[in-house]
Design goal:
This protein has 400 residues and is an alpha/beta fold. Helix content is 40%, strand content 12%. The chain has a 7-stranded mixed sheet, with helices on both faces. The longest helix has 22 residues. It is globular. Bound molecules: 4'-deoxy-4'-aminopyridoxal-5'-phosphate (PMP) and glutamic acid (GLU). 4'-deoxy-4'-aminopyridoxal-5'-phosphate binds next to α5.
Length: 400
């Protein structure tokens, strides 16, 4: 049969995070003892008070109809308060759109602001879906490459050089998926000092890992002077509140952009699930104590894995300051052979070898814009993580 897929979709690959997670699931279903460190998904349960609140909202019988397209007003008011109190950001409730997870928020934003050929500056390594969503929206991702030696942070000079007449927006995440890098106030100010000369560029700040930040200083670029009226801030409940399955994210955007996003959402998905929205409100009202508890666990795991990975001579790691990923550089293994003589030519081949030999699933760096690296998610139990790291060490030692 003829290829029925649209050319637009043919231009992007399947999400490699989801593909590796699916492969791990397939192995598991065949009885293979795979430890999956591929998906960036908290292994915690959604906190009880949030689940209980969601049940109450079902029982109330009040939330069975279509919610308003941008989300319930009381939820948007709570988000506006959160932005103000925790992030020093001033978005009015009518500048907030609640969407179906931050992946959907990004899709809404890109489809609302990009014209064909518009460039979006993306700090690389980047989360895999940024490039795909920009491409689907007819934009052109323009990467700024960084290295582990600089803790994966672009210099302001690099940012300056990446800007062209076609630049419409810039996107990055802090804390960053996949590197765990946290951009400090000083870093962000240095970017601001470049962006100030380009008032037409929209800044898209993905702060979904805000609550998993071991530096204890989360700075929103939109809170810096001169940035507030041109920054779109994205956040959500998936990571900090362990609510991936509820599909709940939100956007704070300057009013004109918020109106466009509202139009986009109104013509595509409409508002997201009413009960998920009620759960989000309860999460915000309940405060960040539960997120802090989970962060403590992630920090403990980060340190355990850091110590174990540091002992593997041929990989280079940095100490991630946030999110729940390690992103080691694996260049030393490229060109190595497996015991049965197969050459490892890429991070992708290394990930497949580790899945076969160590039975540990990771995500290769190619789709994060970093073909020399591989991503290890440590959103798994301590026992699994220790076992996985030992298995990785044994399998990596077999390469020469
Ligand atoms: N941004 C980043 C940086 C992510 O890692 C993810 C993956 N969870 C998302 C956005 C999307 O998250 P969700 O759609 O679950 O809110
Ligand atoms: N964002 C997570 C990750 O990077 C979840 C998977 C996805 O949505 O791509 O693994």
């Amino acid at each position: 049969m003829k290829n029925l897929e649209s050319i637009r979709l043919q231009n992007v690959e399947e999400s490699s995070t989801l593909a590796m997670a699916a492969l791990a699931r397939e192995y598991k279903s065949k009885g293979v003892d795979v430890i999956s460190l591929s998906l960036g998904e908290p292994d915690f349960k959604t906190p009880d008070h949030i689940c209980e609140g969601a049940k109450r909202s079902i029982d109330s019988g009040k939330f069975f109809s279509y919610p308003p397209v941008p989300g319930y007003l009381d939820l948007r008011e709570a988000i506006a308060e959160k932005f103000k109190n925790e992030n020093n950001l001033n978005y009015n409730p009518n500048e907030i759109i609640v969407s179906n997870g931050v992946k959907h928020s990004i899709t809404n934003v890109m489809f609302s602001v990009l014209n064909p050929g518009d460039e979006v500056i993306v700090f690389a390594p980047f989360w895999v879906s940024y490039s795909a969503i920009i491409t689907l929206a007819d934009g052109i991702p323009k990467y700024i490459n960084t290295t582990i030696q600089n803790d994966f942070k672009p210099t302001s000079e690099q940012l300056k050089n990446a800007i062209s007449k076609k630049t419409k927006a810039i996107i990055f995440s802090s804390p960053c998926n996949p590197t765990g890098t946290v951009f400090t106030k000083k870093d962000l100010e240095s970017y601001r000092n470049i962006l100030i000369d380009h008032p037409e560029i929209i800044i898209i700040s993905d702060e979904i890992y805000e609550h998993i930040n071991f530096t204890d200083e989360h700075v929103s670029i939109g809170s810096l002077e001169s940035m507030n009226n041109r920054t779109i801030t994205l956040n959500g409940f998936s990571k900090g509140f362990a609510m991936t399955g509820w599909r709940l994210g939100y956007i704070g955007a300057p009013l004109e952009i918020a109106k466009s996003i509202n139009k986009m959402q109104g013509q595509t998905t409409s508002a997201n699930c009413s009960i998920a929205q009620r759960a989000g409100l309860i999460a915000l009202e309940g405060g960040n104590e539960c997120a802090l508890e989970m962060k403590k666990e992630y920090l403990k795991r980060r340190d355990i894995i850091y110590n174990l990975l540091s002992k593997i001579e041929k990989i280079k790691i940095n100490k991630p300051q946030g999110a729940f990923y390690f992103f080691p550089e694996i260049t030393n293994y490229i060109g190595n052979k497996t015991e049965d003589g197969k050459v490892i030519n890429s991070a992708n081949e290394l990930a497949l070898y580790l899945l076969e030999d160590a039975k540990v699933s990771l995500v290769p760096g190619e789709d994060f814009g970093a073909p020399n690296c591989i991503r290890i998610s440590y959103a798994a139990s301590e026992n699994e993580l220790i076992e996985a790291t030992q298995r990785l060490e044994i399998s990596l030692k077999k390469l020469s």
